[in-house]
Amino acid sequence: MIVYEMKLQGTKSQYRRLDEAIRTGRFVRNSIIKSWMDGQIKSRKDAYSYCKVLSDSPEFPWVSKLNSMARQAQAERAWASIERFYRNCRQKLPGKKGFPKFKKYQVRASVEYKTSGWKLSEDKRYLTFSDKFEAGTFKLWGSRNLHFYQLKQIKRVRVIRRHDGYYAQFVIDHTREEKKELTGKQTGLDVGLNYFYTDCSGTQIENPRFLRKDEGKIKKLQRRLSRTQKGSQNRKKARNRLGRAHLKVSRRRNDWVCKLAQHVIQSNDFVAIENLRIRNMLKNHKLAKSISDAAWYRFREWLEYFGRIYGVPVIAVEPAYTSVDCSNCGEQVVKTLSTRTHRCQHCGYVADRDKNAAINILKSALHKLSNTVGQTEINASGEIDLCLSGETSLSKSTRRKRKPKQ
Ligand SMILES: [Zn+2]
Questions:
Q1: Do the Cβ atoms of 332 and 346 come closer than 8 Å?
Q2: What value does the mean pLDDT take over residues 275-287?
Q3: Reduced to 3 DSSP states, what percent helix, strand and coil does the chain have, rounded to the nearest 5?
Q4: What secondary structure does DSSP assign to 334-375, as a single string?
Q5: Average pLDDT over all residues of the chain
Q6: How far is CA 200 from CA 53, 337, 389, in A?
Q7: 143 by DSSP, 3-state: which?
Q8: CB of 117 within 8 A of CB of 70?
């Protein structure tokens, strides 16, 4: 699947109709959550059929104006959030389980059409909405060209409202595959606050300066917003400015991490990363950290995306002990957060703290990979007749001498 996004150009009254469609979508979603809470909805199927109940009801005449597949898409979203809650409960995750909430009005909101309710013009430069909101025809603005794809490849069209306008996202069923020469290299990446990441060879990527700069601007705009009066016109303006500033940051960040991720994938045959939980990340309210966390999360998504395209495995490992263990001998070397250098008193290995962690991440990912591959093979053959006696002494002696990968 690839997603192309284009800006929608229309008149003010057309935008108001898109607002109506978005509001109706939210109404459908919230109604489903409500009847789930009341015990009327117990399955995904119930959620789907409840869409029909809503649209047939004379109480909510606006629901039937929304395209039927768009209503279903809302049911899917609602059910997905219910399912996520069930899953978190089953796994007994500590802390909040994410009980489904009603969505409030937000500027950033969307409604999703599937294969009906919209039409592209012959030259694919105009998009017309054909449901009963009658939003009409919009000109599409963007650098992407839909010409390469057939209509039936477009599986979904999302209308997204942002602080700076309305956008259409086209979700296209297309598997992208790129050729890549083998590089003979593999790497592990350790993320931190001092550097965006450090890899196995000790290469460090600085946090981009624009993130810090934008952060200052956002703080300023936030202060301005808090000084305005509730409900005033100035507050509305200030909120819009802040929203636009956030948009700008996230676009720049996305651009930067996308290029970086592509570069990492192109120059390695295997990439190991830490499995950082977004749940833990969001707990931290410090702006600087939250911005770099968001950048890292996006970076990981791009790594996995390009990994699939170029055929490079990207394996995430649990972050436990990656900075404590010695990557050379495996002994534990406890250090405080401020200790920047790893010095092993057991084998004498000295390296940058983050580089040591990056090597551990790579090793742990290779272990994880070999375990999953190995297990299926052993299970398939049903018996193990490997002779281990000669192997153990050999592996012990090489362990001490092994040098970290450069
Ligand atoms: Zn050591």
A1: no
A2: 58
A3: 50, 15, 35
A4: ---TT--EEE-TTT--EEEHHHHHHHHHHHHHHHHHHHHHHH
A5: 84
A6: 58, 19, 33
A7: coil
A8: yes
For residue 406, the SS3 value is coil
Instruction: Check residue 332 and report its DSSP letter.
Output: B
CA of 326 to the centre of ligand 1 (A): 5
Confidence of residue 289 (pLDDT cuts 50, 70, 90): low
What is the residue whose two structure tokens read 């290779």?
Answer: 366
Token digits for 48?
């789907």
- The residue to which tokens 């919009």 are assigned: 138
Quick one: tokens of 367?
Answer: 């272990």
Tokens at residue 364, please? Answer: 């742990």
Q: How far is the centre of ligand 1, averaged over its atoms, from the C-alpha of 343 (Å)?
A: 8
Q: How far is the CA of 273 from the centre of ligand 1 (A)?
A: 22
* pTM of full prediction above 0.90: no
pLDDT digit string, tens, across residues 201-236: 999 998 887 777 777 888 899 999 999 888 889 998
Q: How many CA atoms are closer than 13 Å to the CA of 306, on its beta-carbon side?
A: 21
In degrees rounded to 5, what are phi and psi of residue 262? -60, -40
Ligand 1 center to 348 CA (angstroms): 6
Q: How far is CA 143 from CA 7, 15, 159, 231, in A?
A: 10, 22, 18, 38
Identity of residue 375: Q
Largest Cα separation within the chain, whole Å, is: 80
- What would the two tokens of residue 335 be? 């250090």
